[in-house]
Amino acid sequence: MTTAPMPDQLPALEALPDLPRDAGGPVFREPWEASAFAITLELHAAGHFTWNEWATALSQQIKAAQAAGDPDLGNTYYRHWLTALESLVTEKALATSEALDLRAQDWVRAYRNTPHGQPVKLKTG
Amino acid sequence: MAHDHHGDEMTEPPSEMALRVQALESLLVEKGLVDPKALDVIVDRYENRVGPRNGAHVVARAWTDPAYLERLRADATAAITELDYTGRQGEHMVVVENGPKLHHLVVCTLCSCYPWPVLGLPPAWYKSSPYRSRAVIDPRGVLAEFGTVLDEDVEVKVWDSTSEVRFLVLPERPEGTEGWTMEQLIPLVSRNSMIGVEKARPASGAAA
User: Fold this and answer.
1) Lowest mean pLDDT across A59-73, B112-126, B156-170
2) H or E segment at B169?
3) Looking at CA atoms only, how far is residue A7 from chain B in angstroms?
4) Residue B95 DSSP SS3
5) Cα separation of B68 and B61, whole Å?
């Protein structure tokens, strides 16, 4: 259970200004932040966008949020990350924003219909 | 212990952000655009990077600040919130204190309830069914597998987490750390010591 070394193919995290990190690499406040981070790395590794495209999308999102009055205390970083990722995903036609919204609603229903302790599963179809 | 809390109630959906990530991930996986196993590999690599340090901060503070320890004993949820570590779902936190003759071990027998605001992502073994079942039946055997061998006269208490109550083990302060500052102590508080499968790192392991 020791911390694994950074993978060789890890993209240039230095290209992302203000990424919450310490000497050991990125740090996350909540599990969903790590998931959003992982999805981004995977989509990039699969060639769905370049790291440059990602860095641009993220910095645009952060600038827009700052312009809209985000106090930028570091605790909203992954909110901007996720919003940027969603917009890049829709821009690249990997999924539509309608599909994302519907899927989130499906998950809410799935949680509310699942007794605590059971695995939450989506009803498909 | 409150096994019955598990069955009766439905699951509360996570935060809006967590739901959005879950929606994105499940859609991309369904379309074959990302491999869920690859995502797990990345997240696992960072499982130690989410929050164990939050818990270590709580423990090291309690070791060095008697007034904080009192507040932690009286109302752990409030004392942890004081340090700005809060779960969105507001789980009730209880701190169980190890001593020379008492060792606590935390498990969630039915699922994997876990105090992630202070401990981060649960490690894979915590979620595994062998750990969940054996921690209750054979806690000393489980501890031994983690290299934690306790004297016969040390009582082992097993705490079963529920959706309402999450436990955090306050390990014993290692010998030879008298006069150490909170910052020096934090690296001794491993994630596993706060689940109770190990003790805090010895003073000599400070650099590890």
Assistant:
1) B112-126
2) strand B165-170
3) 9
4) strand
5) 7
Active-site choice (B113, B161, B190, B193): B113
- Of the residues B108, B161, B190, B193, only one is catalytic, namely B108
Q: How many CB atoms lie within 10 A of CB A52?
A: 11
How close A76 gets to chain B, by Cα (Å)?
11
Query: Checking DSSP bridges between strand B102-107 and strand B92-97, what pairing results, if any?
Result: unpaired
* B96 token code pair: 């169980």
Are B48 and A27 within 8 A, CB to CB?
Answer: no
Size of interface A-B (CB pairs under 8 A): 157
- What tokens appear for B16 in the block? 């809006």
**HSE of A69, CA atoms in CB hemisphere, 13 A:** 0
B76: phi then psi, degrees, rounded to nearest 5: -65, -40
Enumerate residues 6+ apart whose C-beta is below 8 A from A83: A61, A65
Distance between CA B62 and CA B88 in Å, rounded?
23
Check if the beta carbon of residue B145 is closer than 8 Å to that of residue B134. no
Listed in sequence order, the DSSP H helices in chain B are 4-8, 16-30, 36-45, 52-64, 66-74, 76-82, 116-119, 124-127, 129-137, 139-145, 182-185, 191-195
Domain ranges of chain A: 29-112
CATH class label, B52-205: alpha beta
Q: Please report residues of B whose CB lies closer than 8 A to that of A27.
A: 49-50
**B190 annotated active-site:** no
* Contact (Cβ atoms closer than 8 angstroms) between residue A24 and residue A3: yes
pLDDT in tens, A37-87: 999 999 998 999 998 899 899 989 988 988 888 876 667 889 999 999 999
